[in-house]
Amino acid sequence: MNPHLSLNKKCSRLLNLGAILICAMAFMPMARAANILFYNFENQTMPTTVVDVSGSGNNGTFDVVGGATQPTFTNSPVYAGTGAGNFNGPNTLWQIVQVSNTINYTGDFTISLFLNPSALADAGHFTSLFSNGSNGNTDFFAFMINDGKLLWYHPGTVSAAGTLSINLNQWNQLAIVKNSTTNTFQMYVNGVADTSGSDGAIATNNTSYIGFGGFGGGVSFGINGYLDNVQVFNTALTQSEVQALAVVPEPSTIAMLGFGGIGGLMLVLRGRRGKV
């Protein structure tokens, strides 16, 4: 028997066993963080519904207001996978109405998304990336862009502008982390810490809708460009955890075991989605 062949077989078996163990660890429940909303815009054929692939059941249906133009889905450009949302400018207001679970924003949370803008609203207007509820209600907040930079708006509590520029015609990871214990917030642009500050608690859970691209009003502009991988976590992620969301685009499978308290370890399984 060829000793090298025998050794190769043994190594192959060990590698297969290792892959199984890694996959098992990858799909263990996160002890600290849960991805409670994930819109990756995959396998969408009509601009009427959006599927939450986090497993939390926060699927939504589209509604547009004020005579706005309905956005569409595209397979190019995309940040990851095979789909992204295509928005065509100031006339696009995209509201995603939740039809299943409500999302608890009264505690810690993190919102992360990827934006590839063709243009940005001027200083006198706002582009709403992710808004919750209706302006004037106790559940309302808006994660926006104003004059090419991020803006966190929580009425009656804080309106804080970022300092880092958002790049045109390329993918930008934009994130907001809300810590309810310290009553603070932290914004990030491409994993780099932007403006932070004090902020009060969100008074109530989401009871109405999540809005992309605008929340109504004469100063609200729609997104002009592409949106991908919109995620909400039920914890205040660290900077390294926010950065890890952008490390390896899909279809690779990323298991951030650091979320479970395992020393910040991140295992990256490079393979097609749905396969081990």
Describe the structure.
- With 276 residues, the chain is mostly beta strands.
- The chain contains two helices and 19 strands.
- Strands 2, 3, 6, 8, 9, 10, 11, 15 and 16 form a nine-stranded mixed sheet that branches.
- A hairpin with a 2-residue loop joins strand 9 (141-146) and strand 10 (149-154).
- Mean pLDDT is 74; it is low at 17-31 and 248-276.
The CATH topology corresponds to Jelly Rolls
- Overall shape: it is globular
Beta-strand level of the residues, as a percent range?
35-45%
Largest sheet: 9 strands, mixed
Mean pLDDT, rounded to whole units?
74
Low-confidence stretches: 17-31, 248-276
Structural features:
11% helix, Jelly Rolls, globular, 9-stranded mixed β-sheet, 276 residues
Short recap of the structure:
This protein has helices spanning 3-26, 239-244, and strands at 35-39, 49-50, 60-63, 72-74, 84-88, 94-98, 109-119, 126-132, 141-146, 149-154, 158-161, 172-179, 184-189, 192-198, 209-212, 220-221, 224-233, 253-255, 267-269. It is mostly beta strands and 276 residues long.
Lay out the secondary structure:
Elements: H1 3-26, E1 35-39, E2 49-50, E3 60-63, E4 72-74, E5 84-88, E6 94-98, E7 109-119, E8 126-132, E9 141-146, E10 149-154, E11 158-161, E12 172-179, E13 184-189, E14 192-198, E15 209-212, E16 220-221, E17 224-233, H2 239-244, E18 253-255, E19 267-269
